[in-house]
Design goal:
The protein is mainly α and about 300 residues long. The chain contains 13 helices and two strands. A two-stranded antiparallel ribbon has the order 1-2. It is globular and about 60 Å long. The chain binds protoporphyrin IX containing FE.
Amino acid sequence: MGILAEKYGEIYSLKMGFKKTVILTSMEAMKTIFTNEAAFGRDITGMSGDRILHKNIGIASSTGKMWEKTRTWTFRTLKDFGFGKSLDMECFIKTASQSLFADIDSKIETQSGVIEIDRYFNASILAIMWKMIVGRIIPEDEPNMEAISEKGHAFMRSGVLGMGIVNAYPFLRHIFPKTLGYTVQMDYFTTCNRVGKHLFLEMENELNSSQLTSHHNSLLEKFVQNYTAGNDPELFNCENFQLIFQDLLLGSTDTSATFMEIVVLYLIVYPAVQEKVYQEILRVSPNGRDISYSDRKE
Ligand code: HEM
């Protein structure tokens, strides 16, 4: 890419398959392009278009006014349910880490302390997001969470090569769906959409039967209440909820879980840092109590 930039300049385009792709080869070029509104467009061909049912819905793939209002409403509402607020987040993290720590303890007993770290944090992060979106985790939710977690991971693993080929030649996804990872990707989207729709309809029934008008316990409840009240039908409808649900889970789980895996790897590679962290925890919490955000001042 760099060699081509010497000949054609730091911004140039390449035709890959059916598609023209713009290549940016310097930080300056990226700043120039990404701060320009013309670059806000989305690629909604091939699998990306199938994911959003070829409609302007959700957050990560929508455009224009729809993107603006869906994104603004979603993140503002998530904040109401604790997203980014240290006290609430702390509570969610504590609950999720308790089951994680219990699992680590049991693995220390049963597997001589050997823990497969790959995908280890996904379920806990999914649980935190689920709690904020749905407002509860009941036993009936668990098979759905497990399916989303497993299929989400398979989606992430389905490979960039297949995606790259489909990106260049979108029609190939229908000819070699398995080889190019399309089957796995669509399986994840379909599962997420099925669960999202089920939650939406369940909440709609609940609201209709209880005539609840003001209490909001979750993003889902607030969304469906807006839907039943007939507010902005373009924003508040079942398909848009399905995509918001999918975008939030897809956007948060693997990214944050991978970050946690990197932290573990870093501590393994740098034992001196590991020891420093360990000593700091001992100093701040000598009696083994849970550490909290407020301890950061120490
Ligand atoms: C370490 C953690 C995270 C990393 C590295 C990360 C990274 C990113 C990146 C690079 C994008 C831009 C993708 C693109 O436009 O092509 C993005 C978008 C997005 N992320 Fe994250 N993210 C993280 C955590 C989260 C969390 C916790 C949430 C859920 C609340 C989330 C939800 C989203 C959504 C909904 C979008 C689409 C935004 C839009 O298009 O307007 N992400 N993220």
